[in-house]
Q: What sequence folds into this?
């Protein structure tokens, strides 16, 4: 099912990026891939529309907390999923309060896909309406007299 949503995936590991792209493309999303914090910020604050960011903030050119704080300053807010290992963030509970966290693991892709769909539907409801929901309400025929 095509949703016309664009997801930015940021991870330093090229195998993780490729895997997530393949799985999310199968779900009908358009995917952009980056591997540095500089690229994340370029896309997030750039002119091209994004609907969701999936990020492992352990990127080679930025501090994890620094990039997450910069992402929080985007207006309008960009729905963001932190896709990382829980142990990396137990020292920073404030991050888990403001962003959605999906722990990396063997079967995390199902959870990631589910959380992404939920977040996208919530933040972009018009993109997920069915054909019946998009039609205007059917009223009485205005040409009838009587």
A:
């Amino acid at each position: 099912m095509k949703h016309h949503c664009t997801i930015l995936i940021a991870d330093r590991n090229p195998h993780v990026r490729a895997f997530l792209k393949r799985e999310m493309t199968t779900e009908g999303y358009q995917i952009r891939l980056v591997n540095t914090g500089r690229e994340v910020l370029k896309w997030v604050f750039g002119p091209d529309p994004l609907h969701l960011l999936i990020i492992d903030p352990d990127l080679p050119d930025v501090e994890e907390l620094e990039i997450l704080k910069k992402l929080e300053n985007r207006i309008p807010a960009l729905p963001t999923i932190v896709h990382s290992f829980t142990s990396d963030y137990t020292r920073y509970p404030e991050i888990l309060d403001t962003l959605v966290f999906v722990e990396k693991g063997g079967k995390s892709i199902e959870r990631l896909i589910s959380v992404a769909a939920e977040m996208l539907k919530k933040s972009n409801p018009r993109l997920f309406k069915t054909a019946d929901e998009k039609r205007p309400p059917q009223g009485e025929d205005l040409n009838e007299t009587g």
Observations:
- The mean pLDDT is 84.
- The first strand starts at residue 6 and ends at 10.
- The chain has one domain: 6-134.
